[in-house]
């Protein structure tokens, strides 16, 4: 394939060009408010197969289906309970994915053989414009090579997928910076499968009791069937192994020094940089700014994804609430849940 075409989300002609690629059975990377997505016709199993192939994504890792509005839910889901409509009224368009019983029109390849489908209405206007122009639901996982840090800029997409996909629509940096929250409404009570831009606390304001899936805080068993993207495999990760450091910053810095490594790299909060003097340090925001941490996380992980970086020690928000929960989840996944309490 030739080099990937970089198009401008601010140009109606470029938006129309991407929609035409999708209507013709192609795939393309599109901006969302969460991360960039690699989109294609969700109703065509061959197109969905091309998405998996471009990413190198395991076939048992289901995809999210994106629709233009909540009114489109019945076209992809067999039933739409009142809880789904309440969530849609509160959070759509936005960074929330709802798991519902799927219609037969959704191919097995999209759902990894599950009888459920994960659906959301993205908030990014360029993605919604493409949805309207293409006239079809779009399956769209993150537009990166499987397992690597998710892309929050068009440059990230090109780094991973240049020459593997026809086009990327550049809509600038993503506003949220971590993938959507996923909540499963086929269970009673509903279950949080992946934390994201809509917090667990916000879900409970609408739904009442919401359980948290064990995969949010620990490793899913090797033979377990993931109910949503990002539940089973090591995700969001640079090549070098990551260890999350929990505890006081001075103790964390002493722990890194005690490892005796030649060139350890540290991912930490802005205000912690002085404590790690002498190490290679990349910061991703202030500890007190969860939204800033979410926006900066994947760019920082990508900055550390270089051959000379052989070990990464990461500082993680101590609080497990709001967007902090999503940041913790992504870092723990990147570290394959390797944690050092210092």
Give the tags:
11 helices, alpha/beta, 16 strands
Spatially, the strands of the biggest sheet line up as 2-3-7-4-6-5-9-10-11
Taking pLDDT < 50 over at least 5 consecutive residues as the criterion, the unreliable ranges are: none
Share of helix, binned = 25-40%
Radius of gyration: 20 Å
Structural class computed from helices and strand pairing: alpha/beta
Mean pLDDT: 94
Identify the overall geometry. Answer: globular
Fold and architecture overview:
This protein has helices spanning 12-23, 45-55, 73-76, 82-91, 108-111, 125-134, 154-161, 200-207, 249-258, 290-303, 322-334, and strands at 5-8, 28-30, 37-41, 64-66, 96-101, 116-120, 138-139, 167-170, 181-184, 191-194, 211-212, 242-246, 265-268, 280-283, 312-315, 339-341. The protein is α/β, with parallel strands linked by helices. It starts with a strand and ends with a strand.
Write the layout of secondary structure elements.
Layout: E1 5-8, H1 12-23, E2 28-30, E3 37-41, H2 45-55, E4 64-66, H3 73-76, H4 82-91, E5 96-101, H5 108-111, E6 116-120, H6 125-134, E7 138-139, H7 154-161, E8 167-170, E9 181-184, E10 191-194, H8 200-207, E11 211-212, E12 242-246, H9 249-258, E13 265-268, E14 280-283, H10 290-303, E15 312-315, H11 322-334, E16 339-341
Parallel strand pairs: 1-8, 4-6, 5-9, 10-11, 12-15, 12-16, 13-14, 13-15
Antiparallel strand pairs: 2-3, 3-7, 4-7, 5-6, 9-10
Helix pairs in contact: 1-6, 10-11
Short description, anyone?
It contains 11 helices and 16 strands. It is α/β, with parallel strands linked by helices and 342 residues long.
């Amino acid at each position: 394939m030739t080099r990937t075409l970089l198009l401008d989300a601010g140009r109606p002609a470029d938006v129309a060009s991407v929609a035409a690629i999708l209507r013709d059975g192609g795939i393309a990377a599109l901006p969302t408010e969460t991360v960039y997505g690699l989109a294609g016709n969700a109703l065509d199993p061959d197109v969905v197969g091309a998405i998996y192939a471009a990413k190198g994504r395991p076939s048992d890792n289901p995809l999210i289906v994106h629709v233009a509005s909540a009114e489109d839910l019945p076209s992809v889901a067999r039933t739409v309970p009142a809880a789904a409509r309440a969530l849609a009224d509160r959070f759509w368009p936005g960074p929330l994915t709802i798991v519902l019983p799927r219609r037969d029109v959704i191919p097995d390849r999209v759902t990894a053989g599950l009888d459920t489908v994960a659906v959301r209405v993205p908030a990014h206007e360029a993605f919604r414009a493409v949805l309207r122009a293409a006239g079809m639901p779009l399956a769209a996982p993150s537009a990166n090579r499987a397992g690597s840090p998710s892309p929050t800029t068009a440059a990230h997409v090109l780094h991973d997928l240049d020459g593997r996909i026809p086009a990327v629509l550049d809509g600038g940096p993503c506003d949220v910076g971590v993938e959507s929250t996923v909540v499963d409404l086929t269970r009673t009570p509903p279950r949080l499968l992946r934390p994201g831009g809509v917090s667990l606390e916000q879900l409970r304001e609408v739904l009442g009791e919401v359980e948290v899936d064990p995969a949010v805080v620990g490793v899913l068993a090797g033979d377990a069937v993931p109910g949503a993207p990002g539940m089973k495999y090591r995700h969001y990760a640079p090549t070098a192994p990551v260890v999350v450091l929990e505890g006081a910053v001075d103790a964390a810095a002493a722990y890194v020094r005690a490892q005796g490594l030649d060139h350890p790299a540290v991912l930490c909060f802005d205000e912690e940089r002085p404590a790690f003097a002498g190490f290679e340090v990349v910061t991703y925001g202030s500890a007190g700014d969860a939204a800033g941490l979410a926006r900066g996380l994947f760019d920082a992980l990508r900055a550390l994804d270089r051959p000379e970086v052989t070990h990464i020690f990461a500082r993680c928000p101590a609080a497990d609430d709001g967007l902090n929960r999503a940041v913790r989840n992504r870092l723990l996944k990147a570290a394959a849940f390797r944690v050092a309490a210092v």
